[in-house]
Design goal:
The protein folds into two domains: about 100 residues; about 240 residues, PPM-type phosphatase domain (Phosphatase 2c, domain 1, 4-Layer Sandwich), CATH 3.60.40.10. Helix 3 runs antiparallel to helix 4 and helix 4 packs antiparallel against helix 5. The chain starts with about 20 loop residues before the first helix and ends in a 16-residue tail after the last strand. Helix content is about 40%, strand content about 15%. Strand 2 and strand 3 form a beta hairpin. The strands form two sheets. The chain has a five-stranded antiparallel β-sheet. About 40% of the residues are buried. The protein has eleven helices and ten strands. The chain has about 400 residues and is α+β, with helices and mostly antiparallel strands.
């Protein structure tokens, strides 16, 4: 799976995927702001009358540095501010009062502890980001190119720039029966949704490798959600979780077909030389609600051309809105891409759709978004000779 991960990166995605705060993106140049302020104070002091006490503005320089830079840089600007105050009086033959000088010294003294506190908070936030990144790697592991005999690419756009992980999930499993892929969205937010997503992905990785029948894989996923809800209830959680999902099997013995189980998720699109089409709608119940719907959703065997690519997305794409509240038209966007060279390449497809979503929303996302594009690979499937019961 080819993913463009950048931090600023990748999680959330830079470029088409997401925008980090300005002070994070350009943090290595933050010293320019107090420097410009220092120069501005010197220039203003040079061009204003003697009665204008602009030199007292030097007190702002170390305070601004404390909010933007590290302790060492703050100390440097504090020293420059204290040194510039008497120098301005000499150069411009202005009379600067003692009270203004004490104000500059007070600003420097205040800036030093502020810069230390800010540095400590930044370290703490980086630790939290590292923990979130570890969680992301568990739920959304990297997948090698052409894994399982399919060509795939994925993109994850987090609504929360710092959290970097939510209830959306996807995976590609190489099995003796052909590649099996899943994409889904757990209801709710926060750690309970992440926990359910991790449980589903772990279950899928094992069942998809071991079970020859996709209906049996679906049954394993349904049971896993029910057991996860039982565990959550014993731990005191009030709300039961469910998940919409799509499972697609690329049979190794039928390269012109796919087998699909849809648990109430948005139906995947197919992009190929003949244009864009959508697979049959997902009329099954979400995972965790099969008992209420009278059973698991049907398993469908569908045609898929060798040059066609399946695109699976979560509702972060289909429900993305612009400032006027207009939804993102995924089908129209795909039809616009259909005529472009290489539009069916998975990495090109997910990048183009992700960029379209970000342009449509102006970079303001209210929901996590996952995209997964898969097509029959040009290489060979994995060789499981001698692997026995090893998992994919």
């Amino acid at each position: 799976m080819r993913t463009a991960e950048a931090s600023g990166r990748s999680w959330p995605w830079s470029g088409p995927g997401g925008q980090l705060p300005v002070l994070v993106r350009y943090g290595h140049r933050s010293w320019l702001i107090p420097m410009v302020l220092l120069v501005a104070v010197v220039v203003v002091d040079a061009v204003t009358p003697e009665w204008f006490a602009s030199a007292s503005w030097l007190a702002l320089v170390p305070v601004v540095a404390a909010g933007l830079c590290g302790p060492v840089t703050t100390v440097v600007f504090a020293c420059l501010s204290i040194a510039c105050y008497p120098a301005l009086g000499v150069f411009w033959t202005k009379s600067h009062g003692t009270e203004d000088f004490l104000l500059v010294v007070a600003g420097c003294a205040l800036a030093l502890p502020l810069s230390v506190f800010r540095a400590q908070a930044a370290v703490y936030v980086r630790h939290l980001q590292g923990a979130a990144e570890t969680t992301r790697q568990v739920v959304l592991r990297p997948v090698p190119p052409d894994w399982g005999g399919v060509d795939s690419a994925a993109r994850y756009l987090a609504a929360d720039v710092e959290a970097r992980v939510g209830g959306d999930f996807y995976d590609v499993v190489a099995s003796p029966f052909g590649a099996r892929v899943i994409l889904g969205d757990v209801q709710g937010k926060g750690l309970p949704a992440v926990s359910t997503a991790a449980a589903l992905v772990g279950c899928f990785r094992e069942a998809a490798f071991r079970e020859p029948d996709l209906g049996t894989v679906a049954a394993w996923l349904e049971e896993r959600v029910l057991r996860q809800n039982q565990l959550a209830a014993r731990l005191g959680e009030q709300d039961e979780r469910y998940a919409t999902a799509v499972v697609v099997w690329f049979p190794a013995v039928a390269p012109e077909e796919i087998v699909v189980v849809n648990f109430g998720h948005d139906s995947p699109y197919v992009l190929g030389p003949d244009g864009v089409r959508q697979l049959p709608p997902g009329d099954g119940a979400p995972l965790g609600l099969a008992q209420l719907a009278g059973g698991l959703p049907p398993v469908r065997r569908l045609r898929l051309g060798a040059d066609e690519t399946v695109l699976l997305v979560t509702d972060g794409v289909t429900e993305a809105r612009d400032r006027q509240g207009v939804f993102f038209d995924l089908r129209a966007h795909l039809e616009g891409l259909a005529g472009e060279p290489g539009a069916g390449r998975p990495e090109h497809l997910v990048a183009a759709v992700a960029a379209g979503v970000v342009r449509h929303t102006g970079g303001r996302r209210t929901d996590d978004t996952a995209l997964l594009a898969v097509r029959h690979g040009r290489g060979t499937a994995a060789d499981w000779t001698g692997i026995g019961t090893a998992s994919g």
